[in-house]
């Protein structure tokens, strides 16, 4: 699957790199500083659109360029290379990026980025408050300070959820899409980013956190397959350890059995869904069944024990 901004609000073609960066700065995309390029050379282009709280730009450099942002203020940037090569330096790390590779730049970050001649890249600006709000709605637990993303690259073409969300967003015509729908897609993108790009937050602190790599592997697998009936032996095989070793690990790291850990993650996701977009929810039963809870009386009791209220109370509060 290839990604490109097929529907856009503005387009500028065959201009210098300097004109592109001036355009982005004038649209308050970020405070770019062009350090090195043949600024009088043409061949650069940009496509741009707003979608709800998101600002999206796809731009092609007609020559090798080097840019710097003094500080990324009150926003996060998802940087994705569509073609060519790039390197980005931030938080003391240098990351090499090729086609499909992405990196999340945190608010407050100073960074430099270089692009090869003819490179094509996509940048999505996400306001800080919106990402934090979305994280809370999806059951994540920001620690109060701005979320910090780990400086490493993720190939989004190999990440099913975020790849499909990005494709849909790039193909949406903002003028023909309701504000509510734009907001919904923007929240889905935030959720995809939080799942695919490592940061200093975890799913809500009601679920015991562990830095152990096998726990992280299991957590990622469960979240990627959250509506499935997840087999414990499959998790042991994923970690390349025995079933008994997996149980011992979970007891030591979380104080939970693997089954209880999975259930708590599912309950957190259900809480986020019941607290989210009511247009896609008919009743609690539908949501419970979606995540594999077939005994509704037991589900309500388990939800209350973990969340602190009945699922119907969560849904009722959100509807007011």
UniProtKB/TrEMBL annotation:
InterPro entries (UniProt xref): AraC-bd_2, AraC_XylS_family_regulators, Homeodomain-like_sf, HTH-like, HTH_AraC
SUPFAM superfamilies: Homeodomain-like (SSF46689), Regulatory protein AraC (SSF51215)
Coiled-coil annotated residue ranges, if any: none
Single GO MF descriptor: sequence-specific DNA binding
Pfam families documented for this protein: AraC_binding_2 (PF14525), HTH_18 (PF12833)
Residue span, HTH araC/xylS-type domain: 216-317
Keyword Transcription regulation annotated: yes
Keyword list, A-Z: DNA-binding, Transcription, Transcription regulation
Keyword Glycoprotein: no
UniProt name for this protein: AraC-type DNA-binding protein
UniProt organism field: Marinobacterium lutimaris
Lineage, broadest ranks: Bacteria, Pseudomonadati, Pseudomonadota, Gammaproteobacteria, Oceanospirillales
């Amino acid at each position: 699957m290839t990604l490109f901004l097929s529907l856009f609000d503005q387009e500028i073609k065959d201009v210098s790199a300097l004109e592109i960066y001036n355009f982005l700065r004038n649209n308050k995309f970020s405070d770019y500083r062009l350090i090195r390029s043949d600024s009088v050379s043409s061949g650069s282009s940009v496509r741009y659109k707003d979608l709800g709280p998101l600002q999206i730009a796809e731009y092609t450099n007609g020559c090798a360029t080097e840019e710097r942002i003094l500080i990324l203020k009150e926003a996060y940037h998802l940087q994705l290379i569509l073609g060519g090569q790039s390197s980005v330096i931030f938080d003391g790390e240098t990351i090499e990026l090729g086609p499909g590779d992405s990196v999340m730049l945190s608010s407050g970050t100073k960074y430099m980025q270089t692009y090869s001649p003819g490179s094509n890249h996509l940048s999505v600006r996400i306001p800080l408050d919106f990402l934090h709000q979305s994280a809370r709605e999806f059951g994540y637990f920001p620690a109060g300070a701005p979320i910090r993303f780990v400086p490493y690259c993720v190939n989004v073409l190999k990440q099913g959820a975020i790849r499909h969300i990005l494709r849909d967003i790039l193909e949406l015509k903002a003028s023909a899409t309701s504000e509510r729908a734009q907001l919904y897609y923007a929240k889905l993108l935030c959720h995809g980013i939080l799942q695919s790009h490592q940061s200093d937050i975890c799913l809500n602190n009601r679920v015991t956190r562990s830095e152990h790599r096998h726990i992280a592997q299991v957590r990622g697998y469960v979240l990627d397959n959250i509506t499935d009936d997840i087999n414990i032996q499959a998790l042991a095989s994923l970690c390349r350890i025995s079933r008994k070793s997996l149980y011992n690990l979970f007891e030591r790291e979380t104080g939970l059995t693997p089954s209880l850990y999975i259930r708590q993650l599912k309950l957190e996701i259900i809480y986020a869904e019941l607290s989210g977009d009511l247009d896609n929810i008919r009743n609690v039963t539908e949501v419970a069944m979606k995540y594999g809870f077939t005994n509704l009386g037991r589900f309500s009791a388990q939800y209350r024990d973990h969340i602190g209220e009945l699922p119907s109370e969560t849904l009722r509060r959100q509807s007011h």
